[in-house]
Amino acid sequence: MQIWKIIVIAVLVVLCLIWVVVISYNKGRATGRRVAEEAAAKDADARSLFGDDIPVRPTERRLIEVMPQAVIVTDRNGRVQYASPGSVPFGLVSAGRLNSREVEDILTQAATDGGVREREVQLPIDRNPFPQLNGKGLEAGQLLPSSTLYLRVRIGDIGDDLYVIFIDDVSEQRRFEAVRRDFVTNVSHELKTPAGAIALLAETITDAADDPDAVRYFSGRITKESMRLTELVHHLIDLQKAQSSQGVMDVQRVSTLDVARAAIAENQVQADARHVDIRLSVNGKPVPTVAPEPDAVSDASSDASSDDGATPDSSDSSSNSSEASAENASESATGEGGAGTASESHAPDELQGPVIMADREAMRTAIKNLVENAIHYSPEHTTVAVGLGQDHGTVTIRVVDQGIGIPEKSLDRVFERFYRVDPARSRATGGSGLGLAITKHCVQENGGKISVWSREGEGSTFTIEMPAAPADEGATGRANGAAGTAGTAGTAR
C-alpha cells in the first residue's frame, strides 16, 4: 500500500475519533444538565427561597448586607467563616477569630445545648473623648462618644457546625432610657421640692402662731418657694412656646447689638448684686452695654460746628480740632468720610452691630438666658463677656464667663430639659433647669445653632451662630441719597 493512502486513512480515523468525542461530550453535558435539573426540582433545599431562577450566593450576600443587624458566621470554636460589613465597627473579629470573651461564652452555650441564646453585652472601647469639632465647642444635639458599647447578641445553629451571630447596637437606646430616667427624676424634684417646702412651712407657721417673728420669717420663706414654683411654670410655658413657635414667629431684621443690650439690661441687677462685670464688644471692639442717647452724636456734631463759627479768632489748633470732631462725628453717623446725618432713621452698621433675620423676642430670650446662667455660675468679682461678630455671612454671638465650668461628661446634656450638672447647687444658683433648653429651641427655630465649650475651673463659652441678614436695599438707597445731598451742600458752600 502506498504511503499516501496510509496517511489519508489515518487522518480519516482521527477525524472520526474527534467527531465521536465531540458528540459524546455534548450528549453527556446535556444529560448531566438534565439530571441536575431533575435533582434540583426534587430537592427544594437546593433552590433559592426567592425563586427558581434567583442566584443563591449573590442573593444571600445582599440579604445579609441589608439586614439591620450585623452578622458573623463561625464554627463552634469561634473561627469566623463570614463577617458582614456592618460588624466591622464593633471590632469583634481579629485574625479570623472572635476576640470577645463575652460573645465566645454565648457561642459555647449555644453549641452545647443546640438552642438559640440571646444576651446583652457591654464592650469597652477606646475612642477619642471628643468628636471632630469646629473650634466652637460641642453643638447642641451632638453627642460625646461613649466609652462603652451596648450590644444585643443572638446566636443560633444553622447546620454543618456553623453558627450565626446577630449583633444589634442598642447603645443609643440605653442612653435614651438614661436620659428619660433623669428627666423624670429631675421633674419630680423640681416640682416636689417647692410644693413640699410650702406645705411644711405652712404647718410650721400654724405651730408658731404666737411668735410674730417666726411667722414673718416662715411667711417670707413661703413667698420665696412660691416664686420659685411660679418661675418654673413660666419657664415651662416659655419652653412650650419655643418648641411650637415655627409659623408664628415675627421674623424681621434684628440688630444683635440692640438685642444683646436688652438682654444685659434684664440681668444687670443680678450682676450688680454678685459684683459681676458685664462687658460687650462688637467685632472685638468694646461698646457700651447701655445704648447712647439717639441725639448724642448729633449734639456733638452741632456743638462742634457752633463753636467753630462763634470763635473766629481762636487759635488754628482749636479750629482744626473742632473741624476734626465734626468730621469724625459725621463719619461715625454715616460710616463713610463725608456725607450723612446722625439723625438718619436707620442707624449705621457700626452703631447697630451685625444684623440677622429672626424673631426679636426669641433672640432676646436666648441671650438673656445665657447671660443669666453665666452670672449665676460665676464667682463674685469676675467678668462675663458678650461678644458680637460677623464673618463670611455668619453672625456669631458669644457669652463667655469665668465660672466653675462644666464637666466633660455633661457637655452633651446641658441643653436637656431640667438637667443640672450639680443638683446640689440648684437651690444656691436658682433657676428651673430649663434655661438652656429654651435657648436651644429659640436659636434653632430661627435657623441658627448653638454650641458650648467648657473646662472645669476655667469657665464656659456658649456660641450662637446665625445667618447674616441680606443687605437692606432701602437703607442703602437712603444712604446714597443722603451722601449726594451732603455732597451738593458742600459744593454750594
Brief rundown of the structure:
It is built from 13 helices and 16 strands. The protein is an alpha+beta fold and 493 residues long.
Helix-and-strand structural type: alpha+beta
The number of distinct β-strands equals: 16
**Order of strands, widest sheet:** 6-15-16-14-13-10-11
- Beta-strand portion reads 15-25%
The span between the termini is 137 Å
Radius of gyration equals 39 Å
The H/E string reads HHEEEEHEEEEHHEHEEHHHEHEEHHEEH
How many H/I helices?
13
Query: Which spans have pLDDT < 50 for at least 5 consecutive residues?
Result: 304-349, 485-493
Shape: elongated
Task: Estimate percent helicity.
Answer: 40-55%
The residue-averaged pLDDT reads 75
Polypeptide structure, described:
This protein has 493 residues and is of the alpha+beta class. It is built from 13 helices and 16 strands. It has helices at 3-42, 56-66, 101-113, 171-207, 212-243, 256-273, 296-310, 316-334, 349-352, 360-376, 426-429, 435-445, 473-492; strands at 70-74, 80-83, 93-94, 97-98, 117-124, 138-139, 148-159, 162-169, 251-255, 277-282, 285-287, 355-359, 383-391, 394-400, 449-455, 459-467. The strands form four sheets. The protein has a seven-stranded mixed sheet with strand order 6-15-16-14-13-10-11, with helices on one face. A five-stranded antiparallel sheet has the order 2-1-8-7-5. Strand 7 (148-159) and strand 8 form a beta hairpin. Helix 5 (212-243) packs parallel to helix 12 and helix 10 (360-376) packs antiparallel against helix 12 (435-445). The longest helix is centred in the N-terminal third of the chain and has 40 residues, at 3-42. It is elongated.
